[in-house]
Amino acid sequence: MPSPNPLLLDTGSPPIPEIQRWGSLYNGGGGPLLNMCQAVPSYPPAPGMLERLAIAAGDPATASYGPIMGNATLRQAYAGDLNRAYGGRIGAAEVAITAGCNQAYFVAMMALAGRGDAVLLPTPWYFNHRMVLDMLGVEPRPLPCRSGRGFVPDPEEAAALIDERVRAIVLVTPNNPTGAIYPPEVIARFHDLCRERGIWLVLDETYRDFLPVGQDRPHGLLAVEEWPENLLQLYSFSKSFAVPGHRLGAIGAPTALMPELGKVMDCVQICAARAGQAALTWGLDALDDWRAEKRAATQERIETVRAAFDRLPGWDLEALGAYFAYVRHPFGETSAWRVAEELATKHGLMCLPGPAFAGEEAHLRIAFANVDEAGIVAMEERLRAATP
Ligand SMILES: Cc1ncc(COP(=O)(O)O)c(C=O)c1O
């Protein structure tokens, strides 16, 4: 076979299939396999959403191509949703609908950076963010986040890493993999830094709808009349509406950048899946209570996870939020890959090791949103059984 693009060969493979392979070797002795390696909601979409998806899928009109940047009605509804969440007056022209947030990120990076440029990514990072940069020949420049600072990145450390090659800083909040929620003032400082240095701030807010109850405004950057000129914001409908298979996300950007984003989007998606777009146009207005209920339930689950780790000697819960617990394992110098393998093959608990995110060997990411309350009880039992 002629060799493929070396940039693809040089990037790592997605880690989840490997963990799932380990899970398939588990003999079931400790109870059913627990999948806590992938961040997906453990519940189905709202019944009204499923009905509308079915109706839209049966309508010949949704089988045709749609506008590159998304249905006008959905863009309008999403802009309204943003304004409710952030207190701004953003218009439909400043947002576009993508085939999921991963694609929104790909589109953003293609639009902002080219071969030889660099982008600052706080570590531990979301591995797909690094992979995309590798594939584009863009240097993913790590900005280490430390447990002692709650895994919140430091704008001063970021400033020291910026040189003429850096085109953007990417922040994920609430964070994957750590669950850390960045304070609004830290996000504002990053935005100021990017403006001063003439680079972009890219905010991936996939988990925005899972902020703690009581924290309703993620940050103040979008409490504005017009989209800030150096900001891109990415969102996912996968988690918030429990529709990851329908592949829908969004990107917000200054209107002047939209034609460039549109070029990429035309090449990679032509348009986002249209049945889902139709159903979401309804869901964005109609499912506020449903979203609030899921947010409260996720919060309860967070407390259940916290209580479980309080009872587990040797396991230190170093960060917790949205869908994730980021924990220090009690196996000392043992590689986190090895620990994750043992947990999957011997105890039927699949989770991801810190190094999968360029994090430390001491850490594991446990995606608890993937299981129900009984699953968290089972997690505690399995971790106790595995404790040295
Ligand atoms: C930070 C982050 N961004 C993007 C995505 C991908 O979301 P989507 O399903 O909308 O592509 C995920 C999914 O796990 C994520 O954690």
TrEMBL record:
Residues 34-376 form the Aminotransferase class I/classII large domain. The keyword Transferase applies. Signal peptide: none annotated. Its EC number is 2.6.1.-. Its cofactor is pyridoxal 5'-phosphate. It comes from the Bacteria. The keyword Transferase applies. It catalyses: L-aspartate + 2-oxoglutarate = oxaloacetate + L-glutamate. GO terms for molecular function: L-aspartate:2-oxoglutarate aminotransferase activity; pyridoxal phosphate binding. Keywords: Aminotransferase, Pyridoxal phosphate, Transferase. GO terms for biological process: amino acid metabolic process. NCBIfam families: PRK07550.1. Belongs to the class-I pyridoxal-phosphate-dependent aminotransferase family. This is Aminotransferase.
